[in-house]
């Protein structure tokens, strides 16, 4: 009987409707142009599909599924599939066409080069989605043309996942492909001798190259007699290419009678069908076995025949093993190998005779995968070591066999087989479990461009894994906004800078016995390298990848050398430690070159240079951050491919996900659209790169997870390795979410020396983690840029990152997935469609020079009639991707020809299957979104819910990780939980980042603690909220009205929590409420009263809460009159926006018009308000929770900067240190009034300004705010937990009492900026937010906390030279005492001309630096900044910069930008400068002792 796991059925599976035919599930634009046919199963289930193979040929056969993602030409010609209707679970088929059938192997003249036999052996083919638009340099025709040529029928448009589940649950079924009005008899191919159909008819000899031939002592070539029972051609290649002469004989050839001196070993091939049918073969094999005079090797059917010959039994499996990712454990060594398989029968291991033992066992289902004789050179395997299609990990078995044969011949006796890899006991002894009880995990610090939320996700996973192993965990991470630094995860969290100094101090205090440096991005990695020689002395073991390996991957020279050692290729390159070496290297390599900085994250300091001048500019920046650069040959235009690789201490190695960049090489992978799995690689390409990845990672000695990036020539097999990241990276988070495989969790276990095959697959609960996920869907990642927020920034994309976040979409077709991904970037993007983002005259420039708008340029180019070939010439984006995009554009045109009254049902369905949103369709049909929703629902055009289960439905999954698709016919789930939906924050961007993910996760955890079922909706792969084990159900889906309604209806949700995800959910709360959605917490109508600037300002006037004078914008004339009346400056404020988008301070009439237009464009449906801008006012933050309008908790935080700096960029102090009690009382009163009048239940945030003890309200956000995690962790009261209890109606205690940990206790939240990543951007702060992250540290006073916070952002405290440039007289006077103090501390004061004159006139010694255009080179700004002679630059621009035309580049801007480019610490705010100066006075040494207030534990929080 088959092992039990193969007989399980999924409890959550929803049955296919048998009574009626399932219509085609992928887009068919016009049924008049296609032929349809039916797949009919023996149980009565019928699916309708579209023919793309032999027309009109009805057939019958056995229906089986195969989970491989590549290799259809190889699979279809595998004789083992004879008579079977093959269902390919991967939905996108035909992408790389079919190679030339007539091209033969050079050595093996009659064997085709790219196929496994001379014919297609399957009876029929079933796929979900098929394309005729193939793209591959070897392709000679489409798959459909080849199948027609071979007279094999094929259907697409069938829900292959539904079909796979049916076969999985019921076992293999007989099936028929029937064309119209046709029928055929049921045929069970296993009842006939399929081997006789496929075996060779006459013996044939294949001879190796003379130079490679293995000679026996007698001088003849070593000869293997191969019995062809359905032999794949790659088995012949594997023998002959190794120097063996192969005599291939038919299945019924009497090989037992062959003269024994005419051959040296016997091989039995793979083949189709029931092994017991081929009795003549196994009886002859029994004779050879009994003689025991020849080494024997069998594969697949050959393995089963050997077992039968030995006296064992075989059995039919429920549905067999057919795929390319199946783990098999070597019973001798304990090693686990990933194998390619195709069989429906197995050897019954319990029936093996005493002289045989199991050699391999299937790590998933426990079935037998290999046997070996205990004393004779006889063994066989069930899997395919010759692969094709599939991984090549076990091809070494051919070497094992050939070497054994050779030894037997040379020693003239039968010598038992020696398998490589040692014994299991030896391997365990060599790599015992790491015995640690306390582990330190290094976090990544504040979110920045290149190092974002993915490390919150990976660090959180690592901590979960360590806790599961019972290990006490300590975390150092100053990022207070993350889940990682929350209660319930690490046992102790230190909010300290991740620097060598602080890490060393924590190690000395805590005495951990292990440390992880691979879960905190480049920050943690660099610390590991800095402290590598100290760890042993400190008693700490580095877990996971050794530091030496990390150094090898980070140092470009060492990396190139390591690759050279295993004959692998990286780009021609040379390292340089100065400009002269870099220029010499470029001259030798030849331009264009790419310049990369070593030890840099996200391509910082890298770029392409076409000439010396460009290279010098790049080197200037690179050497400012790194001691070494690498100059390498540019391969712009090649494909960029990535693999995520996992390796354990016992050398088990798997690739979890491979990804293909939509954009060709030349754009940093973090800036590129990425597609998983790769779409345009053949099996040969895919496995060539996979094999290389495994070899490289093994050679480097990585333990855990890493990623490898390649450049692949699109016109050959030429490739280069770009880099290896020996740590968890952005791609790791993407790969985890794309596959459902928890990479960081597994990597943390592997670091403890737990072997991969002993880690459980947490999705299936039954299979092990040593497997490679099979995807039956497509994933697209698109970066999110916020370049519009920065003045003068370059929008060109290159080898350095600029994006602040990324989105991920999942679908069954590329079109559907791409459309959803584009919509995810921004709520205003409808999808891939004609747009106003790129003007007609900009199209060519955008196509040629990639920017953040390129995908929109492609849409407009196609709309204007540009061909795929023309766009390919300009972009080098693979034509397969472009053809898919063009199909969407054609559908847009087709929709435009209809109205809501005459659109055909099928056109509407096809549009949804191609990923068009209701809104997108409505635009084309000139109607509204709701009308389209009603129309499609009336035609039963609805999405289906599918699981991400890592195994393409091969095994039942217990996963709650879901997505929706229109390319399906059934749900994977049943729905009865009625869970509460929590809407996440969507993409990370400036203004909405990890802090909102913290809020969403804390809400989910609070609900689950109360026993309430939860449904999470989010599409951000970098988040903890999209971790599969956080919510009861996770929908990786768009946050749009359409999709939230879809999920709400399908789940029959009991309510939606929209106040935790920031502005994204808030923007759709009111329309959802009006569509009948039960929105939990504050009424959306009240939320609208706060978001709508006009309504909110009117309410404040009505309730007597003061605010700056204001007016709604009705016309430009009215606006000008208002501004003249109240006086400039004024603030222009749109409604319903985040992070101050299009909010501007206007200083004069000239700028007013532009800013008003910009605000109106952002806030098209809502009013724009102008208010008086109050200068020199203090800004105060209020975070609060209310129930039915009554306050339950409030926390006041003080800004260091005056009003005018966006609160997200402000430095926050908690508890406040300088507020007048009367001011606090007024703020509390106003907060209570606003909460009451908006009838708030849940979280809210108000910003106040205070001047002369008068307070005014700036704005109110009726949702959780950016500062919630900060105030929650500082006060010890979890504001989100409190708000969630209030919203759900649970009993809550107002103002829970918390004892502050110390009398002297202050925390300061410091913004993290990424100006180094944004070439040209002016690093000044204003009312529109610019920071990408935040950190917070604790101190005994605000100065200590602030200095630590600054250090945590990467800021280096000055050692000697401080430069001042102060614009306004007022600020010069304000800062003068600080300048005097710094001079007295021993700092050398430098200043620009006007500032120097002012300082010296007040008797402070100062060195004057001349401007950029000065003839005095030595004493100029340029000289001092470019030579890193300045330790700190305080630049306070005068306000008149707002009046200058944008075309004027000021000295101030040039010097600020130069400071950023040369990594010189820069401050541009007078209050921050004063706080820093006072901090330096108090803590001159910059050496901070560890304090009890630096860390938190679960007990810190209100219970």
Name the shape in a single word. Answer: globular
Query: How many H/I helices?
Result: 43
β-strand number: 61
Fraction of helical residues: 25-40%
How is the largest sheet built, in terms of strand order?
Answer: 12-14-13-15-16-21-20-19-17-18
Radius of gyration, Cα only, in angstroms?
34 Å
Low-confidence stretches: 1-19
Strand content bin: 15-25%
Mean pLDDT: 92
Amino-to-carboxy terminus distance: 54 Å
Largest sheet descriptor: 10 strands, mixed
Class by SSE composition: alpha/beta
Characterization of the model:
The protein is an alpha/beta fold and 1503 residues long. Helix content is 31%, strand content 22%. The strands form eleven sheets. It has a ten-stranded mixed sheet with strand order 12-14-13-15-16-21-20-19-17-18, with helices on both faces. A seven-stranded mixed beta barrel has the order 1-2-10-7-4-3-11. It has a seven-stranded antiparallel sheet with strand order 35-34-31-32-33-36-37. Helix 40 links the parallel strand 57 and strand 58. Helix 39 (1369-1384) packs parallel to helix 43. It is globular and about 110 Å long.
Keywords:
disordered N terminus, 7-stranded mixed β-barrel, alpha/beta, 1503 residues, single chain
Q: Which SSEs are present, and which pair or pack?
A:
Elements: E1 36-41, E2 46-51, E3 59-66, H1 72-76, E4 84-88, E5 92-93, E6 98-99, E7 124-126, E8 129-130, E9 139-141, H2 143-149, E10 154-156, H3 160-170, E11 173-179, H4 194-198, E12 204-206, E13 223-227, H5 233-240, E14 245-249, E15 265-268, H6 279-291, E16 296-299, H7 301-310, E17 313-330, E18 336-348, E19 356-362, E20 368-373, E21 378-381, H8 396-411, H9 424-430, E22 438-442, H10 454-468, E23 472-476, E24 492-494, H11 500-510, E25 514-516, H12 521-530, E26 541-542, H13 547-554, H14 556-565, E27 573-576, H15 579-589, E28 593-597, E29 607-609, H16 612-625, E30 629-633, E31 639-647, E32 653-661, E33 674-676, H17 683-700, E34 704-712, E35 719-725, H18 730-739, H19 743-750, E36 778-784, E37 805-811, H20 814-825, H21 843-848, H22 854-863, H23 868-875, H24 879-896, H25 905-913, H26 918-925, H27 929-938, E38 944-947, E39 961-965, E40 980-983, H28 994-1009, E41 1014-1018, E42 1033-1036, H29 1041-1051, E43 1055-1057, H30 1063-1074, E44 1079-1080, H31 1084-1091, H32 1093-1103, E45 1110-1112, H33 1116-1126, E46 1130-1133, E47 1144-1146, ...
Parallel strand pairs: 3-4, 4-7, 5-8, 7-10, 13-14, 13-15, 15-16, 16-21, 22-23, 22-25, 23-24, 25-26, 39-42, 40-41, 40-43, 41-42, 43-44, 56-57, 56-59, 57-58, 59-60
Antiparallel strand pairs: 1-2, 1-11, 2-10, 3-11, 6-9, 12-14, 17-18, 17-19, 19-20, 20-21, 24-61, 27-30, 28-29, 28-30, 31-32, 31-34, 32-33, 33-36, 34-35, 36-37, 38-39, 45-48, 46-47, 46-48, 49-50, 49-52, 50-51, 51-54, 52-53, 54-55
Helix pairs in contact: 6-7, 10-18, 10-19, 13-14, 15-16, 23-24, 24-25, 26-27, 28-37, 30-31, 31-32, 38-43, 39-43
